[in-house]
Amino acid sequence: MPHAAAIAAIVGRDHVLSEDTARAYYASDLVLWEYACPPALVALPGTTGEVAAIARYAQEQGLVLVPRGAGLSYTGGVVSGDGDAIVLDLSRLDGVTIDAINMTVKVGAGLSWASLSKALAGTGLRPQQLGPISGEYSTIGGAVSQNVPGHLEGVLGLELVLADGTIATTGAGSVAGQTPFYRYFGPDLTGMFCGDGGVLGIKTAVTLRLVPERPAHFASFSFASPLDLVDAMARIGATNLGVRMFGMDPQKNRDAAKVDARTGAETVWNVVRQSRNPLALMRDLLQLARAPQSLADSGWTLHLTMEAPTDAAARSILLAARALIPAAGREIDNVLPKALHAKPYSVRGFVGREGERWVPIHGMVPLSVAHATMAALDQYFAAHAKPLAANDITIGYFFSSVGAYVSMEPMFYWRDALSPLHHRYLSERNRVRFADRSNNVAARAKVAAMREDVRAIFRAHGALHAQLARFYPYLDLLEPGTAILARRLKQALDPNRILNRGALDL
């Protein structure tokens, strides 16, 4: 295999994958992309220096580099169409250095969010930056590269490898001998590389702000329609109370209460650990026990979490948010936000309850058009009820917000063959349960076409997106001068376009 010996000399023979099955695996994410091409090989570097050496070699040989975390993307961010690409699996970059005095933690880009939580257990600290629900496996470097709905203000600095092998640091850590306690030192170079999809630089380490674990209060509400739910989110988002919100469709509520024994035990243990007193503990355990019944007919639900320096402050702010819930909302057991707070990471949702294939699409819209956007989505799926039923495709929703916007995520479920990527992250029990699924090309094509339609609906309502990668438009939406700036940045940092070529249209 061309280049394998040279890369093995950098990372070691055991950390180079060139067999066909491995190359095919690394040409995939949660979507089967027609343009996908197996890379020339896969390298698993163990240090920033090794990443830099590979970059220099790729520059000399004219090879494309595709940085990859867990691969749990659905927008093609880690899937290249270049057969001469080297995929950089960064999972070996998983170090953790905690500075509790200065409230920072430096982590390898390949560390998962769940692993960071375990490393911080017992310190009384957590990252200010919220990770995605898929953080059981998805990596911190991946989230910073792809972006997450909300913000990345909890990212203080980055360690980067540029296209020519230069190693650079951003934030206060860019000053020799300086504690990386602050982000905004000179131009915000950290921000320039956040959400870049790996087209400007390869992140090898991330410094995050830590904050104390704080008292939290929770509330949940049921609505008859998604429009009422979205209206409630917009009302709360307009107040800047700092309340975290997420919402779900009726079926997702029912599925949320059906967990395997291991997940259930972990959730119960974490709830026990976080309960404030014996009376609160008994109440929490009773809520968990009756969750399947209470969620069975809960309709569309909105869940609120408020953390504050004191218990009284959290309760007071949540009371203010509760007062904003319209009359259409009915308060229900707050078991879901409490359970998610206790166990924030899971990959249960990346396939359906019975092993259905799952692919979402999302848009973040300003408060002024949240209702109209939801109405347009509702009308679209109602108008396509027959083709959905004919292909046995069901639609779910997930909503979220931590500020003055609403993120809407329609999700498609259908029976189809699962990929090696799915099987890697499934439990052993579910690997066996879902092993016999056959290809469903017709349904897959219908989902792909409908995702494009939904993307157009979002665009018509001014939605923006995280995880731009190769699915959501970027350059074409920019003002001409801004597009020129983006192209000039790419040209200056990566003139030969070897870094994740094609992502962000660059």
Automatic annotation (TrEMBL):
GO MF term list: D-lactate dehydrogenase (cytochrome) activity; D-lactate dehydrogenase (NAD+) activity; FAD binding
The entry's keywords: FAD, Flavoprotein
InterPro entries noted in UniProt: FAD-bd_PCMH, FAD-bd_PCMH-like_sf, FAD-bd_PCMH_sub2, FAD-linked_Oxase-like_C, Oxid_FAD_bind_N
Name of a matching Pfam family: FAD_binding_4
GO term, biological process aspect, one: lactate catabolic process
Alphabetized PANTHER family for the sequence: D-LACTATE DEHYDROGENASE (PTHR11748), D-LACTATE DEHYDROGENASE, MITOCHONDRIAL-RELATED (PTHR11748:SF111)
Sequence similarity: Belongs to the FAD-binding oxidoreductase/transferase type 4 family.
Protein name stated in the entry: FAD-binding oxidoreductase
